[in-house]
Design a protein that fits this description.
Blueprint (H helix, E strand, L loop, with lengths): L1 E4 L5 E10 L5 E10 L2 E6 L3 H18 L12 E7 L9 E13 L9 E13 L5 E6 L1 H16 L9 H11 L1
Antiparallel strand pairs: 1-2, 2-3, 3-4, 5-6, 6-7, 7-8
Length: 176
């Protein structure tokens, strides 16, 4: 299960569940979200494909990026957005958008007075069917670890492959 610490102090865990065809073979995943251990929302199916694409975009941004904010090596825009599918149980939304925001750095200039800088972070939001929401703000490394954890857990449902093509290429290269 992937787990996030939300800005309100609660914990949001995300558990992938296999979506199976009529013969019982997994073809995708849906996600069950729990807030502090209690059921919160369910989204999908169709989550594995888009999480895999998000993992690719994250890996590319981290490999190609540089700049004054090493924790902000993130691709611009929306990483994923999942909503309740008519066939899934539960209701809710689960999304991740990359945002730039100003941040005060107390000792950012030689005068010691501080300075502003722009930081890029992944903002993950989850909403239940009643309109209650939670938010987590993550660095590049944190969102990458979260997505990889959820994909690895999805792989345990019997759905393959659950690692992005970028990760598979890196694994194949490291084996040679």
């Amino acid at each position: 299960m992937g787990s996030l610490r939300c800005v309100d102090g609660t914990s949001l865990t995300v558990r992938p569940v296999a979506a199976c065809d009529r013969r019982g073979h997994p073809f995708e995943i849906r996600l069950e979200l729990h807030r502090d251990g209690s059921p919160f929302a369910a989204v999908g199916p169709g989550c594995a494909y888009f999480l895999d694409r998000a993992a690719e975009r994250l890996a590319r941004a981290r490999a190609e990026g540089d700049g004054p904010d090493p924790e902000g090596l993130l691709p611009a825009g929306e990483l994923f957005a999942f909503r309740r599918d008519q066939r899934s149980r539960g209701a809710g939304e689960f999304l991740c958008v990359v945002r730039d925001a100003p941040e005060w750095v107390p000792e950012g200039d030689p005068s010691g007075r501080g300075d502003w800088r722009v930081v890029r972070r992944a903002v993950v939001e989850a909403w239940d069917g009643g309109g209650r929401g939670v938010r987590a703000v993550l660095t590049s490394a944190e969102i990458t670890d979260f997505v990889r954890t959820v994909l690895a857990e999805a792989g345990r449902t019997g759905l393959e492959p659950m690692t992005s093509r970028v990760d598979r290429r890196n694994l194949e290269t490291s084996r040679n």
